[in-house]
Amino acid sequence: MIEEIATVSAVYDGQVEVVCFSKSACGQCKQNSNCGTGIVSKALPGRDHRFVIATELALTVNQQVRIGIPDHSLLRSVFLVYLFPLLLVLTGALLASIGLGMGDGGTILGAAIGGTLGFVLASRWAGRDGRLATEPVIIAVLLPMASVAYEADTP
């Protein structure tokens, strides 16, 4: 499971909106002042990601939670977005080239038709159940640091 710490930004009836901030890997090494990527990462603002998650937990605004995306759903999404259309591009190109004996133009047309069909079918399969397969779930509610310090002091 791919996990991240998020902060509750809004509470709705049966749902919460959480926000997590993306961290850039750049800027962590000693070469960041000489590296072009490190300089660019300093110039660009951090990006936040917002999700609305269905939950029955009693959460409050600014409370931290651990959210996660199951590995199998991420792999399914990768297959649908990348691998399936690519397979149909290759199948369309091979079918037009070898199967129908078309020239280069026909091969390109077959690849374009196969790719378009792959993306259309992938988008229909991804939205078939009305819920994205990669929607995060709340794994755990994190205790605030003040609560942890207080609990450690009590005998």
What structural class do the secondary elements suggest? alpha+beta
The number of helical runs is 4
The number of distinct β-strands equals 5
Oligomer: single chain
Radius of gyration: 23 Å
Overall pLDDT confidence: 78
List the secondary-structure elements in sequence, H or E: EEHEEHHEH
Helix and strand topology:
Layout (H helix, E strand, L loop, with lengths): L1 E11 L2 E7 L14 H8 L4 E7 L9 E6 L1 H29 L4 H23 L10 E5 L3 H9 L2
Helix pairs in contact: 2-3
Description:
- Helix 2 (71-99) packs antiparallel against helix 3 (104-126).
- This protein has a 5-stranded antiparallel sheet.
- It has helices at 36-43, 71-99, 104-126, 145-153, and strands at residues 2-12, 15-21, 48-54, 64-69, 137-141.
- It starts with a strand and ends with a helix.
- Strand 1 (2-12) and strand 2 (15-21) form a beta hairpin.
- 45% of the residues lie in helices and 23% in strands.
Short recap of the structure:
The chain contains four helices and five strands, in the order ββαββααβα.
